[in-house]
Amino acid sequence: MIQRLTEMNLPHFPLLNDKEMMQNLHAAKEGDTVARERLINCNLKLIFNLVQRFSHRGYEMEDLFQIGTIGLIKAIDKFDFSYGVKFSTYAVPMIIGEIRRFLRDDHPVKVPRSYKELVYKVNRARDELSATLGREATIGEIATNIGVDREDIVAALEAIQSPTSIYDTLYQDDSDPIFVLDQLSEDKGLDPSWLEKIALNEVLDKLSEREKRVLMMRFFEDKTQSQIASLLNLSQVQISRIERAALLRIRGLSQIKDSSSKDSTDLD
């Protein structure tokens, strides 16, 4: 009997605090294979949690977990201490990007028939409701109209669209768009500790289009700074500065978010 990958049978290793993480990263950069192995093992839960959101794609979780591990290893190898951000801030988009690249390249993408049928119903209901309401229908209104859960609609739309960036819009919900990143943040099965430093919508709004584009190419298209510089007609030094500034801004805004949450908790 084949044992399926679950959190229960996932190897358990103690989590590293920030200081330990940096110490092991420095050691791994110097060729310490023990430190490198420790970094991989102590981040298995991070990979597992991120892989969960791709469970509906028709692939074995074990396969996606292996792909996610490749993304983690790339993050360990490419992490730059000058960014001044936590390793998890850097690793999360690298892991997601590696999985998305696999899904994108492994054609045809397996989309369940039930999702295709649901998207057909959603599109038909959206057109009818939009005509009646005189505006774009929301997911909530469509869900009520066709009698399905809002979450099922989002999952089906995501599977069909197969977005390749955390900045892609899955659907327009009321006055605000729903991004791929929103679905990651709203995943009930994702440990909040892993979400603290992942860019939120407020953070994305603060990034320039150039910063978003550079981060997307670095994390999701696995391009080097030199390759990006050539594509954007900029120097490698300029790309490095743009990338570092964007990551520092994410870090700063995340800290503000954390501080605000703490202040709110203290007042309760």
From TrEMBL:
Keywords: DNA-binding, Sigma factor, Sporulation, Transcription, Transcription regulation. It comes from the Bacteria. InterPro entries: RNA_pol_sigma-70_dom (IPR014284), RNA_pol_sigma-B/F/G (IPR014322), RNA_pol_sigma70 (IPR000943), RNA_pol_sigma70_r2 (IPR007627), RNA_pol_sigma70_r3 (IPR007624), RNA_pol_sigma70_r4 (IPR007630), RNA_pol_sigma_r2 (IPR013325), RNA_pol_sigma_r3/r4-like (IPR013324). GO terms for biological process: DNA-templated transcription initiation; sporulation resulting in formation of a cellular spore. Residues 63-76, 224-250 form the RNA polymerase sigma-70 domain. One of its GO terms (molecular function) is DNA binding. CDD domains: Sigma70_r4. Sigma factors are initiation factors that promote the attachment of RNA polymerase to specific initiation sites and are then released. PANTHER family: RNA POLYMERASE SIGMA FACTOR RPO, RNA POLYMERASE SIGMA-F FACTOR. Belongs to the sigma-70 factor family. This is RNA polymerase sigma factor.
